[in-house]
Amino acid sequence: MSTEVASAKTYPPSSEFSSGAHVDAGRYEEMYAASLADPEGFWAEQAKRIDWIKPFTRVKDVDFSFGNVSIKWFEDGTLNVSANCIDRHLATRGDQTAIIFEPDDPNEPAQHITYKELHAQVCKMANVLKALGVGKGDRVVLYLPMIPEAAYAMLACTRIGAIHSIVFAGFSPDALGARVNGCDAKLVITADHAPRGGRITKLKDNVNQALLNDFDEVKCLVVKRTGDPIAWRNELDFWWHEEAEKVSDDCPPEEMGAEDPLFILYTSGSTGQPKGVVHTTGGYLTYAAMTHEITFDYHDGDIYWCTADVGWVTGHSYIVYGPLANGATTLMFEGVPTYPDASRFWQVCEKHKVNQFYTAPTALRALMGQGNSFVEACDLSSLKVLGTVGEPINPEAWNWYNEVVGQGRCPIVDTWWQTETGGHLMTPLPGAHALKPGAAMKPFFGVKPVVLEPASGEIIEGNGVEGVLCIADSWPGQMRTVWGDHERFMKTYFADYKGYYFTGDGCRRDEDGDYWITGRVDDVINVSGHRMGTAEVESALVAHSKVSEAAVVGYPHAIKGQGIYCYVTLMAGEEPSDELRQELRTWVRQEIGPIASPDLIQWAPGLPKTRSGKIMRRILRKIAENDYATLGDTSTLADPSVVDDLIENRMNKG
Ligand code: WTA
């Protein structure tokens, strides 16, 4: 396959930066080669980052062959994650701030929680969980704002060996209920309300609605965030602050096997409903800790801020587990980039003297549109490394980040990874690589990317090539299974390209051998950095009584990266109208959450289908993108004339 030439301008690290970095160019080459030559030796050494209760004797036991997929790392070792993230730091950094909490309202004081305080709070919460009947292996759903209690709850689960499943607080009661049911949770931890961007989400009301009817045995632990009134379920609901009074602030950590599940996190795929990605204990923590330190070039004493939400994998690995395993100071921000105004991110950087700042391209695009004055008003001299995650970053946003935010002196790490991968798989390292705007550049240690011909699955060797991205061997942070459905795990990731982990992304390896992610090759779309299955939005739409059929695709959106474009066929007798469009939007928000809200709805009297009834999404994608020149062959359609109608009535003209 041919490909365009890589962008000419590159941004090498300064020699001062490289010489002080954990990994410079020479060290990267040396370590990368060692990690592939002897993965067992390499990872045995890296696993020393973690304190083991019982050391492992086996490093890696992996089978990628379809039908037998099995992934195990450090299998016979034992450890406890909360002890690694807290207890082992107490002697050396008990009084150091572990978590800085910056509330939504800038007038509310920030909190600095030391490792000692974190220990006491996590132990208390662990004891409360036990008192509520939660034990090793039980599932606990967290539905919380970005408050310190979210980190306490995660770590409290790990302390007693319970498995957490965090549901992003922007999900609807229906989506929450499905996830409580999906993992058979014993307890939900939530807050009364979640302030965000000056608005309030009624979390406890949502939980009540989610648990209504079906789950009258599921208990709920409630953090008081605003104190505004909420509806209470007697005997099932408990205030965190009241229960905390009744228990000790010491709780011995449970000894866990390296392969015991640590958490479940639901994520979207190209088919069906979201699946519960399972991460386990030893490998995940080793990988999260190592990538956090190396990718961001984190040094002792640095203040690190990742703006993600703990409801996504980025928050798991790079707000809580990676940073705390490294004894870092990690900032948790409850708010949004534009509240009270578009300088909030930069004010927080100035206020807390942030050294590493990690965010999503969609936030940068939104802020870039507000003008430079919001950035320039703040002192950003503390910044050393900038990062992005979640979606491809366009060169304009990259340049703005580099020049206006980083003032040309902060390397930008464009980290490519997935919920499934646990941590970064490809990223430039800030002291090692000459950056190219928009490139994920190089594999992390131990990661063996391969580019395959999409149809044949043949490996494409050499540089200047493009294809689907697979990974040839396991790394410790890899997901182990889909909760309750190992078959689905194998089918999703190991069936299409035998012997490889299939990422779902396309990629280009440029003339220099550097990697560029070209986006999903399946029916997953990426809206404001939030990953979504088009099938989920479709099933929400067809659940509406007036809708007979729906097809959903992504289309380019200046701020969100991709927007949600819906083709909707109405039931016979229903009339299209703007009111109905609004009704369907509201409906999808209720079914899934505001993040799934359709941007454009086109009425489609018919959808392009093959004679066997399969919807031709390729054509729908092209129409949504305003790109008709390459519609391809439409002669195999059952009724080719529907395409003309769809083009005639497309939504985003111009
Ligand atoms: C996309 C988020 C380009 C990609 C950590 C991937 C990216 C999906 C990047 C995973 C990046 C993530 N450049 N695309 N730096 N990072 N993606 O599971 O399509 O929410 O497959 O994990 O986001 O999204 P997820």
From TrEMBL:
Q: Which cofactor does it need?
A: Mg(2+)
Q: Which biological process terms from the Gene Ontology are attached to this UniProt entry?
A: acetyl-CoA biosynthetic process from acetate
Query: Has the keyword Ribosomal protein been applied to this entry?
Result: no
Domain named AMP-binding enzyme C-terminal is located at 536-614
Q: Which CDD domains match?
A: ACS
Q: Which family does it belong to?
A: Belongs to the ATP-dependent AMP-binding enzyme family.
Instruction: Extract the InterPro entries matched here.
Output: Ac_CoA_lig (IPR011904), ACAS_N (IPR032387), AMP-bd_C (IPR025110), AMP-bd_C_sf (IPR045851), AMP-binding_CS (IPR020845), AMP-dep_synth/lig_dom (IPR000873), ANL_N_sf (IPR042099)
- Domain Acetyl-coenzyme A synthetase N-terminal intervals: 28-85
| Signal peptide region | none
EC number(s) of the enzyme? Answer: 6.2.1.1
This chain's source organism reads Roseovarius faecimaris
Question: Record-annotated residues binding ATP?
Answer: 390-392, 414-419, 505, 520, 531
Kindly state which keywords UniProt assigns to this record, in alphabetical order: Acetylation, ATP-binding, Ligase, Magnesium, Metal-binding, Nucleotide-binding
What NCBIfam families does this protein's entry cite?
A: Ac_CoA_lig_AcsA, PRK00174.1
Q: What does this protein do?
A: Catalyzes the conversion of acetate into acetyl-CoA (AcCoA), an essential intermediate at the junction of anabolic and catabolic pathways. AcsA undergoes a two-step reaction. In the first half reaction, AcsA combines acetate with ATP to form acetyl-adenylate (AcAMP) intermediate. In the second half reaction, it can then transfer the acetyl group from AcAMP to the sulfhydryl group of CoA, forming the product AcCoA.
Where on this chain does Mg(2+) bind?
542, 544, 547
For molecular function, the Gene Ontology terms on record are: acetate-CoA ligase activity; AMP binding; ATP binding; metal ion binding
Gene that this polypeptide is encoded by: acs
Modification after translation: Acetylated. Deacetylation by the SIR2-homolog deacetylase activates the enzyme.
Its recorded reaction(s) are: acetate + ATP + CoA = acetyl-CoA + AMP + diphosphate
Q: Name the PANTHER family for this protein.
A: ACETYL-COENZYME A SYNTHETASE (PTHR24095), ACETYL-COENZYME A SYNTHETASE 1 (PTHR24095:SF14)
GO CC annotation:
cytosol
Recorded protein name is Acetyl-coenzyme A synthetase
At which residues is N6-acetyllysine found? 614
Asked if the record carries the keyword Signal, the reply is no
- Annotated residues for binding of CoA: 196-199, 314, 528, 589
